[in-house]
Amino acid sequence: MAVYKLFPKKDTTLYSAYPALNTGIDAILEISNTVPSISPSPRVARSLIQFNQEEIEDIIDNKIGDSDFSSSLKLYAAKIQGINLDTTLEIYPASENWGNGTGEYEDSPQTTNGSSWKYIEYSGSDIWKTGGYTPYVTGSYSGSISNGQNMGVGGNWFSGSGYMDREVYATQSFGLRSIKDLNMDVTNIIHAWYTASKATPINPINNNGFLIKLSGSSEFATNKAIQPIFNYYSVDTNTIYPPALEIKWDDFSYNTTLDEIATTDLFVGLDSNPGEFRLDSINKFRLNVRPEFPVRKFQTTSIYTQNYALPTSSYYAIKDLDTNEFVIDFDDIFTKISCDNNSNYFDIYMNGLEPERYYKILIKTTINGSTIIKDEDYYFKVVNG
Questions:
Q1: Beta strand pairing status for 370-383 and 276-278?
Q2: Which DSSP string do the residues of 363-383 spell out, in sequence order?
Q3: Among 18, 137, 8, which Cα is nearest to 76's?
Q4: Residue 327: alpha-carbon gap to chain centroid
Q5: Tens digit of pLDDT for each residue in 199-246?
Q6: How far is CA 122 from CA 31, 101, 209, in A?
Q7: Is the pTM of this model over 0.85?
């Protein structure tokens, strides 16, 4: 019933072909394997992305509490090429605190003041490990050569399996005609970061962000048929599609003396909607529900003032008004509509929505076996400051 979105504090791409290049403010994150015609040596790109640990802890401590939660990393496709074969992306928790930097891919001369394929923080700083790893940590240890450079770096990460009985990694596979947006369940990684911040586990996994890479069979492939290129929008994009860490939990409550509406001919009005909200606000939207054609009764009060309850199988969704894309889609667990003795209601955390844009709320319910979606122009705007 509750959905909270966080945006990255930093992100960058590591390129094997340019070992010291930093791309910390580039608008694109890239994960790829390419085989240039001028050289048989493949070129690989991996991405790093980090979210603020204090914000994650605040959500879990002060909003979720003891409830179970689910978390997903979402990246939005800018341009995807070369997915003629099924291709898998992998996400691992990075094991080093890396530097964002201020570089872009096409900088000339190259910017080297942040993390790169070879260096953890900036050119001349510590080099990503290629051996002698601490427990559960690994990295690239290939000694092959590309453009005269050793490719045995490109980040270090926790290997994923066997850590505190959890698999702290995630994968997503893509086909020729599948949706190319990235949407990976990273709940176990978030749990590991939270545990490390609140306790003293052996070999803690601290929040150094995510490392995203192609699966082992696709990276460093020399076959020209294997050249997948995933370009996703970064936090520095000038679009409305920055990466997001979406945390969802079930705070559904249905405790009411209201009569449940029993007709599919129903009116649903959106109350508690001033129409404009600050970015840092939380709003409880309430619904006015009644039959579209009430049964005539002899009574002293208006039949139009009696509120009814939607069934428990009722959900909300949010669309961006300009793009008509779902920002929060209907979810059978996390967007359920609650009800008390006054009305149905649900909370929306405005911080997860892009500011200075208009949004539309949709309501879905099931009555007598029929699924009904109410799209009644329930609009609101999120504003800065």
A1: parallel
A2: EEEEETTEEEEEEEEEEEEEE
A3: 8
A4: 11
A5: 877 788 999 999 999 998 889 888 888 899 999 999 999 999 999 999
A6: 21, 8, 17
A7: yes
